[in-house]
Amino acid sequence: MTTEALERKPLRRLRSPIWSLRMAWELEKAAFRGQLEYRLNFVIMTFLGIAYQGSGFAFIWVVLRQFHTLDGWTFHDLAFLYSLRLLSHATWVVPFNLLSDIDMTLREGMFDQFLVRPLNPLLQVITHRFRMNVIGDVITAFALFVLAANMADVSFTVVHVVYLVLAVIGGALAEGAIILACASLSFRLLETWALRFLIDNVYLMFGSYPLRIFGAGISWSFTWLVPIAFVAYIPSSVLLKHASGLHVSPIIAWGAPAVGFIWFIASYQVWRWQLKHYQSSGH
After folding, report:
1. Distances from the Cα of 125 to the Cαs of 93, 158, 186, in angstroms?
2. Which ranges constitute the DSSP H helices of the chain?
3. Given this model, what pLDDT does residue 8 score?
4. How far is residue 98's CA from residue 94's CA, in Å, rounded to a whole number?
5. Do residues 88 and 178 lie in contact, with contact meaning Cβ atoms separated by under 8 Å?
6. Is the pLDDT of residue 66 over 90?
7. What is residue 11's predicted lDDT score, i.e. its pLDDT?
8. Which of 187, 175, 178 is nearest to 141 (CA)?
9. Is residue 223 within 8 Å of 211, Cβ to Cβ?
10. What is the H or E stretch that residue 74 is in?
11. Domain residue limits, the chain
């Protein structure tokens, strides 16, 4: 092996995707341990996360007490839909929640240091701190899903379990793709918090209910323009045997998890493209 090849070998190792993911995992764990030092803050932020996500579930319970069904969906069905959306949200928000701070990171010049380290800048953005309120999202998501899965009429065969796992991952990526794309605009606009806040609330409000109740136009828009339907509505319809009422074909419904992967890959390309337009806050 030549001297030049030996010199390049460490660089190739640093650029390895596996190495990058391992480093990101270690940084995430370190950030989490750092936040555990503030125990009262941990308890309060966790409780706030549980209260915020639990309030949405309580609202569904209040609505269904009055109307009993919503477009043929019972309370048990809607509880399953809501908990699946929340489970996908929690899967996304734990590693990527710090994208909400990208504006401040850019304006304060902190992003410069991410560009000189041998690690993907996106991985550094999402691992330099840890927000404890996301733990409340995770706890609420798992608790509500276990409760809803026991109440709803779902047959968990091997095929359905595999589909469920892929649907959670795909749903997380479908939600994360839009947030990542919006965060990427910060390299040009510097302030995109309002847009990300709007997107987050649109996913929360429309993703927790059967999209058909909002009309054909919104159903189409939140399926193909913004992939809200692929987060929980379409997967829940498949698992709860409501697929006959969907506005997409059975093939697309069963392939829903793949949509999240496609959207996220596209959004990551947007991130890389917008990153080229970054200018340091000192310029």
Report:
1. 13, 37, 13
2. 3-14, 17-36, 39-67, 75-96, 102-107, 111-115, 121-127, 133-151, 158-184, 186-189, 193-206, 216-220, 234-239, 250-254, 256-275
3. 44
4. 9
5. no
6. no
7. 44
8. 175
9. yes
10. strand 73-74
11. 13-275
**pTM score, whole prediction:** 0.83
pLDDT band at residue 36, thresholds of 50, 70 and 90? low
CA angle 212, 244, 143 (to 5 degrees): 70
Residues 242-260 have pLDDT tens digits of 887 788 898 999 999 999 9
User: Predicted confidence band at 91 (pLDDT cuts at 50, 70, 90)?
Assistant: very high
pLDDT at position 19 is 67
Place of tokens 């794309």: 181
Spatial contact of 164 and 71, defined as CB atoms under 8 Å apart: no
Q: Which residues contact 89 (CB under 8 A, 6 or more apart)?
A: 137, 141, 172, 175, 203, 231
User: Long-range contact list for 105-110, CB < 8 A, 24+ apart?
Assistant: 106/186, 106/187, 106/190, 106/278, 106/281, 107/190, 107/281, 108/281, 109/280, 109/281, 109/282
Cα atoms in the 13 Å half-sphere on the side-chain side of 161: 3
pLDDT of residue 27: 67
- Residue range 138-150: mean pLDDT, rounded: 89
Matching residue, tokens 């606009």: 189
